[in-house]
Design goal:
Helix content is 42%, strand content 16%. With 182 residues, it is α+β, with helices and mostly antiparallel strands.
């Protein structure tokens, strides 16, 4: 049995992660300029620590994306995958969804809460008229909860309540339960 799924992969510095964020924002703006009437759904993993991508995280991403697309198909939401990134900073999908952003956000939250694995995902909903992602709070939806203690996730992240090792151990165990018994 593997000790941790984070024992392989290329460590990313804060600079590399921030550079990727800048590239993400640039692409989001380009997409929204090109398709101002469409809702943009940006889906990525929210992974603690310097390892952001490896074969294990790719399997988690693929399983989650399958579930996300199933939720959207079952809800008859028309979507297309506009772009897929496979980077050392993590995999990411950019979808164009031909539906009201409120419905898209509700379905994105439904996806994030659908199964334990999906709680590792960050599904941001963006529209042309707003400069940042639509928040759960704006739509009166419940805040995202920490998977270790169930407090509001942002509160735990800001205060660094849990160690990177504890968070990675949780993700490794989740991988063993949901993806593989290695």
């Amino acid at each position: 049995m593997i000790k941790s799924i984070f024992n392989e992969g290329q460590p990313q510095s804060i600079t590399e992660v921030l550079q990727n964020k800048d590239e993400r924002v640039k692409l989001q703006q380009e997409i929204l300029q090109k398709f101002p009437e469409t809702t943009l759904l940006d889906v990525k993993l929210n992974i603690p620590g310097p390892i952001k991508n490896n074969r294990y995280l790719e399997k988690i991403f693929a399983a989650g994306i399958f579930d996300l697309e199933t939720v959207f198909q079952n809800s008859n939401l028309p979507f297309i995958l506009y772009e897929h990134w496979e980077k050392v900073t993590g995999p990411e999908n950019f979808y164009l969804v031909n539906c009201n952003y409120r419905v898209v956000k509700e379905k994105a939250v439904e996806f994030e809460e659908h199964q334990k694995l999906n709680r590792l995902f960050d599904a941001d909903v963006l529209i042309d008229k707003q400069k940042q992602a639509i928040s759960r709070k704006e739509l009166g939806l419940p805040v995202r909860r920490c998977f270790l203690c169930s407090r509001p996730a942002k509160e735990c992240a800001r205060s660094r309540r849990h160690s990177v090792t504890d968070l990675q151990d949780y993700i490794t165990n989740l991988y063993r339960q949901e993806i593989s018994s290695v």
